[in-house]
Specification:
By secondary structure, this protein is an alpha/beta fold. About 35% of the residues lie in helices and about 20% in strands. The protein has 2 domains: about 110 residues, Cobalt-precorrin-4 Transmethylase, domain 1, CATH 3.40.1010.10; about 110 residues, Methyltransferase, Cobalt-precorrin-4 Transmethylase, Domain 2 (2-Layer Sandwich). It has 8 helices and 10 strands. It has a 5-stranded parallel β-sheet, with helices on both faces. A 5-stranded mixed β-sheet has the order 6-7-10-8-9.
Length: about 240
């Protein structure tokens, strides 16, 4: 008789520091309390998150497996072995939604190929929250992840996405490593046209949250937001 597979639960993690359940539904804690196997981007932060969530069992009794930027395609299948044997697993990103700009997407792709049920839970998405508050086009938008690091390639990419925003009206969403936020913002002010609208969303869900949309020309005339080493979303729009 074939053993029934476990399920994979996609567990959102709070974007900002503080009480995890300020922004997550109580149902999520119920699900987490029933799991003993977690596939996570970083074990240390996942342990801290689950401990703060007070899931009702000793954290040291839980099993963790890492899936991050160093995980190879050959490493993915072993991560699913407990699920194939009937145990359910939770996937936790460093912050926000697992599987979205997150290595957990590779685990989910393998699970889908195997016919394993994947259950997404409700939680914070900095991308959509930034878009909600931006005043940019929420009917048509694209998440483009990280731009190239090399200056010439980055400038070319910015001009490409600006053209899409201008000609199609499609909002273009970007993220950057927090320590490179200021460089990206500076490059945007240098490369983009003055009339292009640019949203900068910093520390979403935190008490220090700032979300502002101005034209590039308006941004050039005032001090840059404090975004050094702070989670930031950038949106380019018409």
């Amino acid at each position: 008789m074939k053993m029934a597979y476990g399920k994979i639960y996609m567990l959102p993690c709070p974007i900002s520091e503080g009480n995890p359940y300020d922004v997550l539904p109580e149902y999520n804690r119920t699900v987490m309390a029933g799991l003993d196997y977690f596939i996570v981007e970083n074990v240390r932060t996942a342990r801290r998150f689950l401990s703060a969530a007070k899931i009702g069992c000793p954290i040291e009794e839980l099993e963790f497996a890492e899936c991050n930027e160093h995980t190879t395609a050959m490493d993915i299948e072993p991560l699913l072995r407990p699920v194939l044997e009937g145990r359910s697993a939770g996937i936790i990103s460093e912050a926000g939604l697992p599987g979205v700009a997150d290595p957990g997407a590779d685990v989910v792709a393998a699970a889908q190929r195997r016919g394993i049920e994947v259950v997404p839970l409700v939680g914070p998405s900095s991308l959509l929250m930034a878009l909600m508050a931006s005043g940019q086009n929420g009917q048509s938008f694209a998440f483009n992840g990280y731009l190239p690091i090399k200056p010439a390639e980055r400038a070319k990419a910015l001009r490409h996405f600006e053209r899409r925003a201008q000609t199609e009206g499609q909002s273009q969403i970007f993220i950057e490593a927090p320590y490179r936020n200021e460089k990206l913002f500076s490059d945007m002010l240098s490369v983009l046209s003055g009339g292009t609208r640019l949203t900068v969303a910093v520390d979403i869900t935190s008490p220090t949250q700032q979300i502002r949309t101005l034209t590039v020309e308006q941004w050039r005339k005032q001090s840059a937001p404090d975004m050094h080493k702070r989670p930031t979303i950038f949106i380019v729009g018409r």
